[in-house]
Amino acid sequence: MKRALLLGGTGDALIIARGMTKPHIYSIAGLARVPTDLACDVRVGGFGGVPGLIDYMSANEIALVVDATHPYAAQMSRHAREACTRADVPLWAVRRPAWQPQPGDDWREAADWNGIVERIARFHRPLFTLGREPLAHLSEIPASQRWTVRCLDPHEGNARADIVDARGPFDIAGERALFDSARIDVVVSKNSGGKATEAKLTVARERGLPVVMLARPALPPADREFDDPASARDALLAYDFNLQ
Fold first, then answer.
1. In which pathway does it act (predicted)?
2. Which residues are CB-neighbours of 99 under 8 A, at least 6 positions away?
């Protein structure tokens, strides 16, 4: 039986997945929280690169792939594009619009980790909302700084870093409290887009704090692209797999 394969691990993907039933498949990486309330099949783990994804699609009669991964999961998106091209399987993608600076914002773009370090050098209390990447650099924190790192899973900090394990959505009141308690003077963020984690930008704007924004990676084109998950879900529900 022909199936759709939804590549997820994001809130957008869950909106689509909750409209899916068996035999369609929702696939997430091992770090993502595994949902238990879905009517479709759920797969956890990697594929083993492009060859593994092609083999998986062939073995499971995948007739459509929907890429709803994070905007910064560029490698997975590239693998999906190459695998679908080689297997002649249509690829759809949810391309969440990036945040745009508002009046009063002070955004400073960085291309990579070295650029981030350069841009926060004169600040003392950065808040990192990049996921796990800063955890690899805790031994490099300058004596003039104390980091607050927010990521999904608990992790041990050190004398110069506080690790906050939390999952969005985050509201403005909670972000204000975090900024106050940690005495944040600069925010480091991915330009993820969406409402779930946008409140930190509002608080930074209120307080006149700079935001160092990690540049979005370039993503490959899909055969059909959506800027919101509800539209992708509705199109998937209307898709005629018998014609594939």
1. Cofactor biosynthesis; adenosylcobalamin biosynthesis
2. 191, 192, 193, 198, 201
